[in-house]
Design a protein that fits this description.
mainly alpha
Length: 136
């Protein structure tokens, strides 16, 4: 298969948008991690101030876990964007192949994460619905 100029133009445009979205994702990931660290550090104080006894430090770990999970799709998207964007003007086929490989990793990661989340939602429904019916 040979990429024509129209296909390369689409890939170039896609790489620019992916780079923008990846930078936004990195910023969001950084903010999530920062919130997680703040909750870890200030968790006992927040629990005392609210007088609820809620373990805010535990919520900090949840935020940090979400931030770590969010890092990988952002990284894959960024690597795709950079490698693809640089390979098109240079007509560097190995770099374009590596960039497309990162796009594959991005979609694979998102697919696996979707399966995991749907499984969690299904298990929650299987547990919550009978409990709610029993409490009626």
């Amino acid at each position: 298969m040979v990429c024509n100029n129209e296909m390369l133009g689409y890939l170039r445009a896609c790489s620019k948008w992916c780079k923008f979205l990846a930078i936004i994702a990195f910023i969001g990931t950084g903010l999530i991690l920062l919130i997680g660290l703040i909750l870890l550090a200030a968790g006992p104080l927040l629990s005392a101030l609210t007088k609820t006894g809620f373990p805010f430090w535990l919520l900090g770990f949840v935020y940090i876990a979400i931030g770590v999970v969010n890092f990988f799709p952002a990284y894959y998207m960024y690597r795709f964007a950079v490698l693809t964007g640089e390979s098109i003007p240079a007509r560097d086929e190995p770099a374009l192949t590596e960039g497309i490989g990162y796009m594959k990793k991005l979609y694979k990661f998102n697919g696996i994460l979707t399966i995991i989340l749907l499984s969690i939602y299904l298990m929650a429904c299987v547990i919550v619905i009978p409990v709610m019916l029993a409490l009626r």
